[in-house]
Fold:
Amino acid sequence: MDRQQQAYMYALVTVLFWVTVASAFELTLRYLDFLHMVLYSSAFSAIILFFILLGQDKLKLLKTYSKRDYINSAILGFLNPFFYYMILFKAYDLLLAQEAQPLNQTWAVVLPILSIIILKQKIKFLNILALLISFFGVLIISTRGNLLGFSFTNPFGVFVALFSAIIWSLFWIYNIKDKRDEVSKLFLNFTFGFFYILIALPILSPFLLSNSSFGIKLVGGYGLLGAIYIGLFEMGITFVLWLKALQLSKTTAQVSNFIYLVPFLSLIVINLTVGENIYISTIIGLVFIIAGILLQQYVSRERPNRKEKEVNSGKDSGNK
Structure:
């Protein structure tokens, strides 16, 4: 098996895991509240990343990082996993999985727009057009096709799902500027994120949970299994597998196109495991969202400058 075939194999395995995570979120929320999902899944992700670092003989890298590096990890860990997954899991708590998953996919359109604003680049007409195309898809999904009535099924849930896309985009923009080893950075992010939610949960639970116990609950059974699965296959192992696919591939485009399979295959898994009847409006809206993403990528790859290349490389490294 040559390097490119290995790259395809790693990419395919990663995609097969990614298509299950939306269902895993929805099923685990039947047994855990969204705050405890962040707590336990972050903990298991940090544990598996620790062992991956150990296996790769990269733990020694942690000793070489400066105080500023650890401050950067603390900031990025606040964005992801702490804030991002708290918002994302809340979106799944409020919406159907088939709605939350496509709405979160809009990060791929939001990312270039935010990078233009933050990096003070000139915005193009096609950037705006791509955003409008994806936003039209958002409207179709959010109203379940009732565009004329303009009646959102859950306005706050839609806002939360779209806000998660903004948080993820901000995380990637600032993460790309940090040139440290990706796996060690992710381990530190999740370690900091775990301690953030550990501290914040007793404070936030009285305000965000209807059945709050003012503290941290020990869980078992399906809730714990779901958190372990999410920690391993949404946050931990799949990230390393995807990096391996990118490293082995001749070009990132040859494997990054696999990402577009995820939202459509996810709908099949959601139907089979969660039991949601997939709306035609969800499929149509998702097509518009992906069309906007493809247009945005075309614009980004058309004579990109150095900073734009950095953002695009980050986009190819992401899975959301």
